[in-house]
Amino acid sequence: MTERHARPATASDAVDAVLASNRGPFSFRPSPTGILEAHEGVGAVAEALATVAHDRAGRTTWVACPVSEHDYTAVANGTAAVSARALPYEAVHVLPERPALHGYYDGMSNGILWPACHDLWDDLGLEVGDWDGNLRAYDDVNRLFADALARHSSAAAVVSLHDYHVLRVARHLRRLQPDRRVGLFLHVPWRARGFSRLPERLVRAVVDGMLGADVVGFQTTDWIDEFLETCETLGYEVDAERRSVRADRDRWSWMKAYPVALEPAKVERLARTPHAERWAAEIDGGVSRPLIARVDRIEPSKNQIRGFEAFEVLERGGGFEHATFVACLIPRRAEIPAYRRYRAALEARAEAINRARPGAVRLYVGEDRERALALLRLHDVLLVNSVADGMNLVAKEGALLNENDGALVVSSTVGAARELGEGAIVIDDPRDVQATAQALGRALSLPSGERARRAALLRRHVARDSPAAWFRDQVEDLLHVRDHGRPRPGS
């Protein structure tokens, strides 16, 4: 297990904070008897913020929005408020009208911002379409967030906004409370080319909202550079050296990189529950080696189809005819036709590989985090060939958990490549199937000593940080802006 040492207290520890994100601490599902039951919020953002909120118990409020119809019902009938009483921090929800929620979530957040942030327009075959109504709904819901933040926290509390669903909140909050210290963290990438496909008025509304924050955080400096490129295209005054943008006549907004971290003890614990142990035994006992693994949501940004195609190329090349590709995949955004088509094509590709060599691909589809973590203990190679990712915590989880000196193959366009690249094998172009196959072959051919060296390097890097420290860095910078007009020096 990972050991941690006590750390000295900092000024940020005594500051109240209010968090805002689309997903909150709970998701709700009906029990067999039809009663809505609270389950821990799903997704990397919700997991990180839950850790932060527990670490800062008594000094934190978390404002979120219902995501599913079950969530909406739980918020509307008070079930969510009852569940929140058991938390050591305050949790509240905004409750938009359903048409506004649809435009905010399905129309704008998932239908426009997600493809733009990842530059997926061509991969998905999407057009921007009728965006004006979706932007109005998005702005209305972001205004509800701002109202809730102002209502449920003191003026001295720092505000921490999270991800692409709340990019207009800071601007609305600044109109309500001009002196609030506001941070915004974008968990996903920012691709300037992806935003260049959008109407200028839409991009300007998004960027203007983001610049309402004192500090805008990104996973890596690469995404900062692309965001500054977008700002320059729009005509904003940009100081590239200081990584800042003139947001208002008398105020600058600052950009900083805060690579998100795991909570190692929690991940290790989940990977070794009885449920996870059963899955580890089943997977390990039913595959031929070497074992190539992936753990992803099912969506085009994760690039699974090209990963399967690279596996086929690897097999045809000889030497790895007995390899097994095991994937634990989580369905997402089934309401969007392009995502349903992508899932169908992905499953068809896996079936085609298995017709040629039965058992070559094992596909597990469904929400089962412990099964996924069990797989990460076992792989010989972990493939993370996303088209783009803000960070990709699966790469870090695999580095932490693997018991087999497993190698990491990761795209250069994934935030984890910047952090873990020294110990990983990096694919320059994730859309290049041949290059991906070559990277897999290289990873599988590493001598045992080199595998062990790389694995130890990855493990040491991942184990040294935590979500609590990640959040403290952001709060410390907001306090530095308050006292000195700019964040602390650093990337």
Provide a descriptive summary of the structure in words.
A nine-stranded mixed sheet has the order 5-4-1-6-7-8-11-10-9, sandwiched between helices. The chain has a six-stranded parallel sheet with strand order 14-13-12-15-16-17, sandwiched between helices. The two termini are 31 Å apart. It has 20 helices and 17 strands. It has helices spanning 44-55, 69-76, 79-84, 98-118, 121-124, 132-151, 169-176, 192-196, 200-210, 221-233, 264-270, 274-285, 304-316, 337-356, 369-376, 393-401, 415-420, 433-444, 448-463, 467-484, and strands spanning 17-21, 26-30, 36-40, 60-64, 90-93, 158-162, 182-185, 215-218, 238-239, 244-248, 251-257, 291-298, 324-331, 361-365, 381-384, 407-411, 425-427.
